[in-house]
UniProtKB/TrEMBL annotation:
Segment forming the signal sequence: none
Coiled coil: 610-668, 885-923
Organism: Marinomonas phaeophyticola
Transmembrane segments: none
Domain Helicase C-terminal: 408-587
CDD domains for the chain: DEXDc_RapA, SF2_C_SNF
Domain of life, source organism: Bacteria
PANTHER family to which the protein is assigned, alphabetical: SNF2/RAD54 HELICASE FAMILY (PTHR10799)
Domain Helicase ATP-binding: 47-220
Keywords noted in UniProt: ATP-binding, Coiled coil, Helicase, Hydrolase, Nucleotide-binding
Listed name of the protein: SNF2-related protein
Annotated InterPro entries: DEXDc_RapA, Helicase_ATP-bd, Helicase_C-like, P-loop_NTPase, SNF2-like_sf, SNF2/RAD54-like_C, SNF2_N
Length: 945
C-alpha cells in the first residue's frame, strides 16, 4: 500500500491544530505519561475555560491529583508555545514538582534559588527569572514562596503567561493588615498575570480567607473588604446572598470531593495504620545528649555566630536526635572548623535538606568566626569541651533506637503482609551519616544485599554500580532522561522495586519519588514539621497505592520533649492513621509547618526541665487548638461543594468523552506511522502498537514503560520527527487515485464514490485574538458532476491508499469548492464568535457584580457614619462637665462633616466606578478582536477505484 506526501501533510496538520482547551487537550493528554482521571481533565478545562479569566482556584480534596491538574494546564500552555511559565511552591516541594513535570509531561524546568540566581547575575544575566536567557533553553521556572517574595522586583519584570501557586492557602490571610507580608509582595509582583491556585483548604476559619485568595487572582472580582464583609461576612447569611456568592465563586473555584470520585469509580482509597516502638537510651547516650544540648543552649558560643544561631543549632539538634554516630562526625568537623576559625556551616552538610532550611531561614546572616572577636582562652576551652563530647561519643558502642528498629521490623513486615503488601520498607533518616551507619548495621543483621540508599548525592560505590547497570540495561530507551539526578533516582527506585527489601532515604533524596509498590514506612528520625512528615508518608500513601499502609515511629522514653512531639503529630495532626489524606484539612489549616518547627525548636533550646517542657507544649497545643479543630461548617460546604449527582454524572460523561477523543487521536497517530512505513515493508502492526524494523513503538505510555518499548507521540522521538518532515506549509497540486478495498474498510459513503472523480482542497483556517488562537482544517471536495462531498467523507477518502499519484487532471470545479469553503469558514467563525460572546458575557457579569460591590461599600460607609453620629449624640447628652460636652460636640461635628463630604462625593465616586467598568470592558473588547487567516495546504484532483 502506498500513501502520498499530501495525505501525510493532512495528518500532520490535523494532529497539531490549536484550539480552545476542550479541542486541543487531547493532544496534551496523548503526549503525557499518566492515566488521566475525568475529574483532573474537568479541573484543567475549568482553568482554561475562558481566555479572559484572570485565574482560578483548583480546590479538590487531597489525594485527587491537583499536581496532575496544574501540570496539564502548564502542558497545554507549553503546547501553545507560551514559555513564560512560573511555579511557586513550598521549598520542600520544588524538586518533586520538577520531577513530576519531566517524568509525566516531558516538560523541562529550572529551579531558581539563591545559589543559581546569584550565579546567573554574576554571569551577566540581568534578570535570572528570564529562565530561557539564563539557561539557554526554555523551561518552566520553579521557586519557593520565600524566594519569590524576596525577589519581588525581578519577578514583576517578567510578563508571565501563567503562574501556578501550590499550597496557595499560604496566602489566604492577605486581607489582614498585620501580616501576610509574603502574600502582599507576591500580589503586587504578579498583578495582572493569569494564575492557577492549588489548595485543598482555600476556606478554613473565616469566609474572608476566600476573599483574600480571590482578590490575589483578580482585584476586579469582589469590591473592597468592607463591602464583602457587609454582604457575606455576617453570622447568619440569608439564602439569597449565599446562593449569589456560590454562583459567583463557581466561576473561579472548582472543587471535587474524594467520595464523588470514588462513586464515579476513578480512585479507590486505602488506609494508614500506626505502629510504635518504645526505646530508652543508655546512660552514655543520655549523657551525650544532655551535655551537647546544654552546650547549644549557651549564649556565649564561639563556634556559632549569633546571626546563624537558629539554623546551626536546629540542624545540630536534629543530628543529635538521629544517632551518636552522626553526632561524632559532626563534632569532629566542628572542632576542625573552630581550630581554623572557619564557618561551621560546613559541619551541617550531614543534613541532606540543608538548602531547604537555608531558604526558609531567609533572615539569618552568613555564619563565620571573626578573628577580632575571639578570646584565645575561651576558644581553647570551647575546643576542649567539644573534644570531651567527642570522647564520650566514641565510648558509645550500642544504640537503643537502632535496636528498637531491628525489633520492630519483623513485626511491621508481618502487619504489612497481613494487609496484602509486599515485604518492603522505606526507612527515613534526617542524617546522611546515620543512613550509612544504619545500612551497615542492617546488613550485618540479616539484610545484606537487600538494601538501597537514596540521598541527595548518592556518591557511594553501591549506588554508582546500580546506576551503571541501569544505564546499560536501558541503553537507547526512553527510560533514560539525560538528567543524572533523575536517572540515578530512577535506577535506585527500580532496584528497590525489583530486588531490595529496604530503602534507606534522607529527606532530600526522597523528594520527587513515588513508591506506591511499598506499603511500609519507618520514621527512624521524626521531623518536627508536620508537612514534612506528611510529605514522607505521601511517598507510599498516594494515588496508585493498592494496599493499606503501615507507618512506624519510635518513642524515646528518656526524652519528654521527643514524646510530646510524637503526641502532637499523632494525636493533634492525625498523621499516622485514617483514610488516605485525612490529615490534609488539618495540614492546610496551619499557616506553615516551618513556624511549628521553629516553635518546637524554641522549646528544645530554652527548656531545662521536664516541667518546663510540659508547660511549653501545653501552651503550643492551646495556640494550635483553633486551627487544628477542623470545622466543616454548612457555609463552607454550600460555597465550595456541588451536588453529588450532578458531579458524578458530569465525571462519567467526561470519562467517556476523553476515552473516545483519545482513541480517535491515537488512531490518527497510528495511521501516520502506517502511511510512512507500510510501503517499504518495515511496518508490522500489533494490538499494542507497531514495529518499524526491530524497534517496537506503543501509543500506550503504561505499556511502553512496562515493556521498555519506545513511546510513539508527537512531542518527541519518531512522532516529532515525522511531524517535522510532513507538516509543510504548501504542497504542489497533484492527482490522487485512491483505492477502496471493501475487505479493509466498510464506509458506505466512500463506496458510493467508487468510479467517480473530482477535486478536493485542504485549507487551514486560523482565527486568532490576542488571547486565543483557534485552527481548523477545512476539507472540501466536489465530484466532476458538481456534487459536494461531506467533510467527514473527505476525511475517510484521505485515509485510503493510492494506486498512483501524478499531475492534476483538468477539472473545472473551483466555483463549487469556493462556495463550500466559504460556508465551512462561516460556520467556524460563528462558533468562535459564539464562544467569544460567552467569554464577554461572563466578564460583563463579573464587572457588574464588582461595581455593585463598590457602590454598596459607599452606601455602607454613609450608614456607618449615620450610626456613629446617632450614638455620639446619645452619648453626649449623658456627659456631666462642660469641657466633656464641648469635646463631644467637636467630635460630633467632625463626624457630620465627614458624612456630608462622603455624601457630596457619593455620585462622583459612582461615576468613577462606572468609568472604570467601561474602561475594563473596552480592554476586553480589544482583546477579543479577531484576525482570520486562510492557508492552502494543497489542492488535488481525485478518483476512487
Amino acid at each position: 500500500m502506498n500513501y502520498s506526501s499530501h495525505q501525510k501533510a493532512w495528518l500532520a496538520h490535523s494532529l497539531t491544530l490549536s484550539g480552545k482547551a476542550e479541542e486541543s487537550m487531547t493532544q496534551t493528554i496523548a503526549n503525557s505519561k499518566v492515566d488521566m482521571n475525568p475529574h483532573q481533565v474537568e479541573a484543567a478545562l475549568f482553568a482554561l475555560s475562558s481566555p479572559l479569566s484572570s485565574g482560578v482556584i483548583l480546590a479538590d480534596e487531597v489525594g485527587l491529583g491537583k499536581t496532575i491538574e496544574a501540570s496539564l494546564v502548564l502542558a497545554q500552555k507549553w503546547a501553545e508555545r507560551k514559555r513564560k511559565l512560573l511555579l511557586i511552591v513550598p521549598a520542600t516541594l520544588r524538586k518533586q514538582w520538577s520531577q513530576e513535570l519531566e517524568e509525566k509531561f516531558s516538560l523541562p524546568s529550572a529551579i531558581l534559588e539563591a545559589t543559581t540566581f546569584n550565579a546567573a547575575l554574576k554571569s551577566g544575566i540581568a534578570n535570572p527569572f528570564e529562565v530561557e536567557v539564563s539557561t539557554g533553553k526554555p523551561a518552566i521556572c520553579i521557586c519557593s514562596y520565600e524566594f519569590a517574595a524576596r525577589k519581588e522586583v525581578e519577578l514583576a519584570r517578567v510578563s508571565w503567561d501563567l503562574v501556578v501557586l501550590d499550597e496557595a492557602h499560604k496566602l489566604r490571610n492577605i486581607y489582614k493588615t498585620d501580616g501576610a507580608k509574603t502574600a502582599k509582595k507576591l500580589e503586587l509582583a504578579l498583578q495582572g498575570r493569569k494564575k492557577v491556585m492549588l489548595s485543598a483548604t482555600p476556606l478554613q476559619n473565616s469566609i474572608l480567607e476566600l476573599y483574600g485568595l480571590v482578590s490575589i487572582l483578580d482585584p476586579h472580582f469582589f469590591g473592597d473588604l468592607n463591602s464583602f464583609k457587609a454582604r457575606y461576612g455576617r453570622q447568619n447569611l440569608d439564602e439569597i446572598e449565599l446562593a449569589l456568592l456560590h454562583a459567583r465563586l463557581s466561576k473561579v473555584c472548582n472543587r471535587t470531593l474524594r467520595r464523588q470520585v470514588q462513586e464515579e469509580g476513578g480512585i479507590s482509597f486505602t488506609h494508614r495504620y500506626s505502629m510504635t516502638e518504645d526505646f530508652r537510651p543508655s546512660a552514655e547516650e543520655e549523657q551525650l545528649y544532655t551535655e551537647v544540648s546544654e552546650y547549644l543552649q549557651r549564649e556565649d558560643l564561639l563556634s556559632i555566630k549569633s546571626g546563624a544561631r537558629h539554623l546551626v543549632t536546629l540542624v545540630i539538634r536534629k543530628i543529635l536526635a538521629s544517632s551518636s554516630y552522626a553526632v561524632l562526625g559532626t563534632l569532629e568537623t566542628m572542632i576542625n572548623r573552630l581550630e581554623q576559625k572557619l564557618p561551621i556551616i560546613e559541619a551541617l552538610q550531614d543534613l541532606d535538606c540543608l538548602n531547604d532550611y537555608q531558604d526558609e531561614d531567609e533572615d539569618e546572616d552568613e555564619d563565620a568566626v571573626e578573628d577580632e572577636d575571639i578570646d584565645p582562652v575561651a576558644l581553647s576551652a570551647e575546643i576542649e569541651l567539644l573534644r570531651s563530647f567527642k570522647e564520650l561519643a566514641l565510648k558509645i558502642s550500642g544504640n537503643a533506637k537502632a535496636e528498637a528498629l531491628l525489633r520492630v521490623l519483623t513485626r511491621a513486615f508481618d502487619k504489612t503482609s497481613e494487609l496484602g503488601g509486599s515485604r518492603k520498607a522505606v526507612v527515613f533518616t534526617e542524617s546522611v551519616r546515620t543512613q550509612t551507619w544504619l545500612a551497615e548495621l542492617l546488613a550485618s543483621n540479616g539484610y545484606s544485599g537487600q538494601i538501597v540508599l537514596l540521598n541527595g548525592s548518592n556518591n557511594d560505590a553501591a549506588s554508582k554500580a546500580i546506576y551503571k547497570e541501569w544505564l546499560e540495561k536501558h541503553h537507547g530507551s526512553t527510560r533514560i532522561s539525560g538528567s543524572k539526578t533523575a536517572d540515578m533516582k530512577a535506577a535506585l527506585v527500580d532496584k528497590f522495586k525489583d530486588e531490595a527489601t529496604l530503602m534507606i532515604c534522607t529527606e532530600a533524596g526522597a523528594e520527587g519519588i513515588n513508591l506506591q509498590f511499598c506499603s511500609l514506612l519507618v520514621n527512624y528520625d521524626l521531623p518536627w514539621n508536620p508537612q514534612r512528615v506528611e510529605q514522607r508518608i505521601g511517598r507510599i500513601h498516594r494515588y496508585g497505592q493498592k494496599h493499606d499502609v503501615v507507618v512506624v515511629n519510635f518513642i524515646n522514653k528518656g526524652n519528654r520533649a521527643d514524646e510530646r512531639v510524637f503526641e502532637l503529630l499523632s494525636q493533634k495532626f492525625q498523621l499516622f492513621e485514617g483514610v488516605f489524606g485525612a490529615s490534609d484539612e488539618i495540614l492546610g489549616s496551619i499557616e506553615s509547618g516551618v513556624d511549628i518547627e521553629r516553635r518546637i525548636y524554641d522549646i528544645y533550646q530554652n527548656c531545662r526541665s521536664d516541667d518546663q517542657i510540659e508547660h511549653e507544649f501545653n501552651q503550643l497545643q492551646e495556640q494550635l487548638k483553633e486551627q487544628l479543630e477542623v470545622k466543616v461548617n454548612e457555609t463552607r460546604r454550600s460555597l465550595l461543594e456541588n451536588f453529588d449527582a450532578d458531579v458524578v454524572e458530569r465525571l462519567n460523561t467526561r470519562r467517556n468523552r476523553v476515552t473516545a477523543q483519545l482513541s480517535q487521536y491515537q488512531k490518527k497517530l497510528l495511521l501516520l506511522a502506517r502511511m510512512t512505513f507500510t510501503s517499504d515493508g518495515s511496518f508490522t502492526e500489533t494490538e499494542n502498537g507497531f514495529n518499524v524494523g526491530e524497534t517496537f513503538y506503543s501509543l500506550d505510555w503504561a505499556y511502553a514503560v512496562k515493556h521498555d518499548h519506545s513511546l510513539f507521540r508527537v512531542s518527541d522521538g519518531l512522532g516529532l520527527e515525522l511531524l517535522e518532515r510532513y507538516k509543510v506549509d504548501r504542497l504542489e497540486n497533484t492527482h490522487l487515485a485512491f483505492v477502496y478495498e471493501p475487505e479493509d474498510t466498510h464506509w458506505a459513503d466512500v463506496k458510493n464514490l467508487v468510479s467517480q472523480k473530482g477535486m478536493l482542497r485542504i485549507t487551514k483556517v486560523s482565527i486568532g485574538s490576542s488571547e486565543e488562537k483557534r485552527e481548523r482544517l477545512i476539507l472540501t471536495a466536489i465530484t466532476d458532476i458538481g456534487q459536494i462531498v461531506h467533510p467527514e467523507t473527505v476525511e475517510r477518502i484521505l485515509q485510503l491508499p493510492i494506486s498512483v499519484q501524478g499531475k492534476p487532471q483538468p477539472l473545472d470545479s473551483h466555483v463549487g469548492l469556493d462556495g463550500d469553503i466559504s460556508h465551512q469558514l462561516q460556520v467556524f467563525i460563528s462558533e468562535v464568535e459564539q464562544d467569544n460572546e460567552r467569554y464577554y458575557a461572563e466578564e460583563v457579569e463579573k464587572l457588574e457584580r464588582w461595581a455593585e460591590d463598590k457602590r454598596i461599600a459607599l452606601d455602607i460607609r454613609i450608614k456607618q457614619l449615620d450610626l456613629e453620629i446617632k450614638q455620639a449624640r446619645k452619648a453626649s447628652r449623658q456627659l456631666g462637665t462642660l469641657q466633656e460636652k464641648m469635646a463631644a460636640k467637636r467630635a460630633l461635628k467632625s463626624l457630620e462633616r465627614e458624612r456630608d463630604q462622603v455624601m457630596l462625593n457619593y455620585h462622583e465616586e459612582k461615576k468613577l466606578i462606572e468609568q472604570e467598568e467601561d474602561r475594563l470592558l473596552e480592554e476586553i473588547e480589544a482583546r477579543l478582536k479577531l484576525d482570520t487567516r486562510l492557508e492552502l495546504i494543497f489542492e488535488a484532483t481525485w478518483s476512487v477505484n
